[in-house]
Amino acid sequence: MSSLEPTDNGSVSAKEQGSRWNAAWRVLFRFSLLYFVLYALPFPFMQLLLDLRSAGAMLHDWFGWAQPSWTATAFSWLGEYNAFWKEVTTWLSTHDWVGIEVIHQPTGAGDTAHAYVKLLVSSVLALALTGVWSWLAKRGTSYASLGRWLHLGVRWYLFFSILGYGLIKIYASQFGYPSPSALLRPLGDNSPMGLVWNFMGFSKPYEVISGLGEAVGATLLLWHRTALLGCFVLIPVMGNVVLLNFLYGVPVKLYSGHLLLFTVALLVPFVPRLIALFVTNRSLPPPVDLRVVRNRWVGGCLIAFGCLWISIHLWNAHEGYMAVRERRVRTEPELYGVWDVERMVRDGKHVGVSDVSRWKHFVVEHDSRAWFETMLGKRSNLDFSYDLERGECTVALMSRKANSEPPSASKTDSAEQKPGNADASKTPWSLERLRETRKAQDRYAKTMQDRVKFTDQPRDVLVLRGTWDEQPLELTLVRKVFNLEREFRWIQELPR
Question: Domain 337-485, what fold?
Answer without folding.
Answer: Lipocalin (2.40.128)
